[in-house]
Each structure stands twice: as structure tokens, then as C-alpha cells.
Design a protein that fits this description.
One of its GO terms (biological process) is response to auxin. Pfam families: Myb_DNA-binding. One of its GO terms (cellular component) is nucleus. The protein is mainly α. It has two domains: 50 residues, Homeodomain-like (Arc Repressor Mutant, subunit A, Orthogonal Bundle); 195 residues, no CATH class. The chain is 57% helix and 0% strand. Helix 4 packs antiparallel against helix 7. The protein is elongated and about 50 Å long. The relative contact order is 0.12. The N terminus and C terminus are likely disordered. It binds a DNA duplex through helix 3 and helix 6.
DNA sequence: AAGGTAGACAACCGCTTCCTG
DNA sequence: CCAGGAAGCGGTTGTCTACCT
């Protein structure tokens, strides 16, 4: 197993993608849909390994990707989801459907880590997360921004195709439908993205009791049971196949629970005074 | 104006997980 | 159940750009 051997082949190009390569890849995916990446270099003539093609598509060319500055709302979500889930960038990005895991990861490493470092000695991460959420939810009355990027046009070109191909990326297609081709509001996204009527018994049960000073669930004595509950529910809800993460509203509920607030007040003041947020 | 430095982010590497025969 | 291949994921690196001296 291990690394894919295709990347070691002689003649495999590395480095930045050219617009010509992008067009080749986009055209191919338009025709065949994403997936079967192994065949992409062969069928397109691209001098790239399949992995590279997949990455380029998912992180850059896929329609519906929002690029550019993160809104305070997104920032807050990342902070508290990171506190909850750890460095599970794919999981975190799934709550921010317009952002890729790579994007979220980069943003965390370059921006948020530094920001939070300032507060780390004063407050543990879950508390920080709660503060951030309180702030962002309070101020989240639509923070829609318009983003420009070099690839936005390519993405735009694909919007129409995605609408015409409901079997491909159906979720994104639905998003495009309902958004009329424009970028959607965060609220709209949240409303359609996650399993709407889910009863997250396990998450709600967990409440504050299972948090630890480390900011995750894994260190708590109750966590094994908690994990089992989550896992069972995941299997039930997803038929053992797809990825499952608890709905944002559940996380929000947990984070906003008053009994968790504790030392948050103090931190809030600190943040109010800080130029960071 | 030129060189140095830091920040941002695209892309790669390699490990893990999933799927299929 | 097992092995091999493909895809997913997170960590890291490389490169470009903006800013500073």
C-alpha cells in the first residue's frame, strides 16, 4: 500500500497547474464526472498523477468553492469545531460546504492558530470556542461577501453543467439550484446541508459533562460510551457508508449551554479589548 | 531600488481507510 | 477473511507576493 506509484513515474509533472491543464481537467470531469481518477491522466493526456488531478479538482476547480477571506462567522465556526473535533479538517470543512479541507487547514495554520495562541494561557480551547461562537452567532446576521479569484470563472462555467448533471455532486447541484447560481448565505447553507431532522441524542446527552481540559472528547472518562453512541447513531443514520458528523445546531447547543459558560465572561472581555476579532 | 523576511496558499508526500475481488 | 488497489486525509513543503529595512 502506501503512496500511489503513479507519482513516482518519470514524466509526471509537478508544480503549479497551468490554465491549459485546468481546462483539460475541467473538460474531462464535465464529460465523465468526478471519480475514477486513475483514468484521468490517461484519458486527458495530462502529465499528472491521478492523485494530483483529484486534489486539483476538489480543492480548486470544483464548482461552488468560495475563495478569499473567511468571514468572522466562518472563522468562529472553524475555531469551535477545531476545539471539538481536533484537526479533522475534512470534518470541519463539511460544516463549511463552500470551503475545502485544505483551505480550512491553511487558514487555521496561518491565521487562527496565532490568534488563539494569545488566549491559550488564559483559557482552554472549548471555552475559547464557546466565546467565539457566542460572538459569531450574535453577529452572524448574514456575513455574505463576494469573492473574486482566478478560478471563479472556471467554477462559474461549471455551474450550468452541475445543474444539468444532477447525478454528479447532487448536493452541490442542489446548492446551486437553490442559490440561483449566486453564492449563498451561510444561513441557507446550514439549513440545507445537514440532516435536518436529526435527533442527536448522543450529542445532546454529552453536553458539557464530557468535555475535558484538552478540548476534545477523547480524554473524558465518559468518552468511550459517548463514542459508541455516536458510532451507533452514525451507522443507523448513514447505513454504515457515508461520513457522518453531528449537525451544527447540536454543536451550537452544546457550546452555548449556559452551564458551560463558566469563565467565559472573563474571556469575552479580553476579546472585546483585543484588536484580533 | 535592492535584498531580506514573513505571510499566504497551492501542491505534494505518505499514512490510513475503504472497497472490491 | 485477506490482500491489493484506490481514494481520503492530515502534515509538510515550495513558491509567490507583499512588506520592511
Amino acid at each position: 500500500m502506501g503512496r500511489s506509484p503513479c507519482c513516482d513515474k518519470v514524466g509526471i509533472k509537478k508544480g503549479p497547474w497551468t490554465p491549459e491543464e485546468d481546462i483539460l481537467l475541467v473538460s474531462y470531469v464535465q464529460e465523465h464526472g468526478p471519480g475514477n481518477w486513475r483514468l484521468v491522466p490517461t484519458n486527458t493526456g495530462l502529465q499528472r498523477c491521478s492523485k494530483s488531478c483529484r486534489l486539483r479538482w476538489t480543492n480548486y476547480l470544483r464548482p461552488g468553492i468560495k475563495r478569499g477571506n473567511f468571514t468572522p462567522h466562518e472563522e468562529g465556526m472553524i475555531i469551535h469545531l477545531q476545539a471539538l473535533l481536533g484537526n479533522k479538517w475534512a470534518a470541519i470543512a463539511s460544516y463549511l460546504p463552500q470551503r475545502t479541507d485544505n483551505d480550512v487547514k491553511n487558514y487555521w495554520n496561518t491565521h487562527l492558530k496565532k490568534k488563539l495562541k494569545k488566549f491559550q494561557p488564559a483559557m482552554e480551547l472549548p471555552q475559547m470556542a464557546q466565546v467565539c461562537l457566542n460572538k459569531t452567532v450574535a453577529g452572524s446576521s448574514s456575513t455574505i461577501a463576494t469573492y473574486a479569484s482566478s478560478t471563479e470563472n472556471i467554477s462559474r462555467l461549471l455551474q450550468g453543467w452541475m445543474r444539468a448533471s444532477p447525478n454528479i455532486c447532487s448536493n452541490q447541484s442542489a446548492i446551486n439550484e437553490s442559490g440561483g447560481g449566486d453564492l449563498m448565505s451561510n444561513e441557507h447553507f446550514e439549513s440545507i446541508l445537514w440532516f435536518e431532522n436529526m435527533n442527536n441524542v448522543a450529542w445532546e446527552k454529552s453536553a458539557c459533562g464530557s468535555t475535558t481540559s484538552k478540548g476534545g472528547f477523547q480524554d473524558s472518562g465518559n468518552d468511550d460510551q459517548f463514542s459508541v453512541e455516536i458510532t451507533q447513531e452514525m451507522k443507523q443514520k448513514t447505513g454504515n457508508n457515508s461520513k457522518f458528523y453531528p449537525s451544527f445546531s447540536s454543536l451550537e447547543k452544546w457550546l452555548l449551554d449556559d452551564s458551560c459558560a463558566g469563565q467565559v465572561e472573563e474571556m469575552n472581555q479580553s476579546i472585546e479589548l483585543s484588536p484580533i476579532f
